[in-house]
Design brief:
The protein has helices spanning 22-37, 58-68, 84-96, 107-116, 170-173, 188-198, 214-224, 260-274, 284-299; strands at residues 9-12, 41-46, 78-79, 100-103, 143-146, 155-160, 164-169, 177-180, 203-207, 230-234. The termini are close together. By secondary structure, the chain is α/β, with parallel strands linked by helices. A motif ('HIGH' region) lies at residues 14-24. Residues 11-282 form the Glutamyl/glutaminyl-tRNA synthetase class Ib catalytic domain.
C-alpha cells in the first residue's frame, strides 16, 4: 500500500546475535532512508528474545556501528527483553478469546505428517492441526499455537511497496503457528506484532526473508485489534553460495577498526548500490545528503510507490 498521510513511524529491529554486517546494514539503511524521505520517526528496537543466540555486548556494538555510519535513531532504543509483560498480556487476550491451544507435536512428527500427506520432502512444514482439539493421551504440551481461519478467511493479501502484490493462504501454506515456544521463549511473530502495535509503527521496512511472515502478522494484528502497517521488503544480501548473509552463514562486521573513509567505501556505498541508489559521495555526511533524494527516486520506480 502507498505510504499514508498520517505521521510516519518506522523502525529498525536487529537481533544481537553478532555485529552489524552488510546484510543488516542494507535493511537499516532502507528503513532509515524511508523514514527520512517521509519526514518521519525512525525507532531502534533490539530483538533479543532468543536468549540462546544473543552475544554479550552485540547490542552495544550494533548501536555504535549505526552511529558511526551516521544513522541516529529517534528517542531511546528499546529491548524486547524489557517488554515481557506486553507479550504476556497479548497471550492472555488470545487465550481468553479462544485462539490459542497447547500443542505436543515435535518437528519430526509434523514433518512426518506432511510427508504422509504427500508434501515435498524439502518443502515448508505446514502444521496439520493434530492438537487442535486437544492433546492426545500421554502427550505433554511443547508449545502454544494460534488457530488460523479456514476457507476464504484464511487468505491474506497485501501490497508490498517493493515486491508488489502478495497473497498467502494461512490454512494451506502455514497452518496454526506458534506464539509461545516449548522452551518458554516468545515466538517472533507475536513479539514483533505486539511491539509494532505498542510503538505505533506505521511502516515496516525490512529484508525480503521476512516477506513470508507478513500474512501471519497481519492475522495476529486482526485478532489483537491492532492496525495494519504498510510494508516494504528489500532484497537480501547473499554470500557466494547464494545463502542469505547472516551471522549463521559467517557474515563479518563491516566496520571493525575502519576509518570513516573506509567505512564509506567498504560499507555505505556498496549498501546503497545494492539498493539501486546512485550515490557518489566522498564523506559520510555527503553520503546521506545524496542518499535521501536517491531513495525518493528509487521509490518512484517501485511497483507501489508514494
Amino acid at each position: 500500500m502507498p505510504v499514508p498521510t498520517a505521521p510516519y513511524i518506522g523502525r529498525f529491529a536487529p537481533s544481537p546475535s553478532g555485529p552489524l554486517h552488510m546484510g543488516s546494514l542494507v535493511a537499516a539503511m532502507a528503513s532509515y532512508l524511508d523514514a527520512k524521505v517521509h519526514r518521519g520517526t525512525w525507532l531502534l528496537r533490539i530483538e533479543d528474545l532468543d536468549y540462546d543466540r544473543n552475544v554479550k555486548g552485540a547490542d552495544a556494538g550494533i548501536l555504535a556501528s549505526l552511529q558511526r555510519c551516521g544513522m541516529q535513531w529517534d528517542g531511546e532504543a528499546t529491548w524486547q527483553s524489557r517488554r515481557l509483560p506486553l507479550y504476556q498480556a497479548a497471550l492472555k487476550q488470545l487465550q481468553d478469546d479462544g485462539f490459542v491451544y497447547a500443542c505436543g507435536c515435535s518437528r519430526k512428527e509434523i514433518q512426518d505428517s506432511n510427508l504422509q500427506a504427500g508434501a515435498p520432502k524439502n518443502g515448508a512444514a505446514v502444521y496439520p492441526g493434530t492438537c487442535r482439539h486437544g492433546l492426545a493421551p500421554g502427550k505433554a504440551a511443547r508449545a502454544l499455537r494460534l488457530r488460523v481461519p479456514q476457507g476464504a478467511d484464511a487468505v491474506y493479501a497485501f501490497a508490498d511497496r517493493w515486491a508488489g502484490p502478495q497473497r498467502q493462504d494461512l490454512a494451506n501454506d502455514v497452518g496454526d503457528f506458534i506464539v509461545l515456544r516449548g522452551d518458554g521463549y516468545w515466538a517472533y511473530q507475536l513479539a514483533v506484532v505486539v511491539d509494532d502495535g505498542a510503538q505505533g509503527i506505521t511502516q515496516v521496512v525490512r529484508g525480503a526473508d521476512l516477506l513470508d511472515s507478513t500474512p501471519r502478522q497481519l492475522y495476529l494484528q486482526d485478532v489483537l485489534g491492532l492496525p495494519h502497517p504498510g510494508f516494504l521488503h528489500v532484497p537480501v544480501v547473499t554470500n557466494d553460495s547464494g545463502e542469505k548473509l547472516s551471522k549463521q552463514t559467517g557474515a563479518l562486521a563491516f566496520d571493525t577498526g575502519t576509518q570513516a573513509t573506509e567505512l564509506l567505501t567498504s560499507a555505505l556505498l556498496p549498501a546503497a548500490r545494492f539498493l539501486g541508489l546512485d550515490v557518489r559521495a566522498e564523506n559520510v555526511e555527503d553520503f546521506w545528503r545524496q542518499a535521501v533524494p536517491a531513495w525518493a527516486q528509487r521509490l518512484s520506480q517501485l511497483p507501489i510507490h508514494a
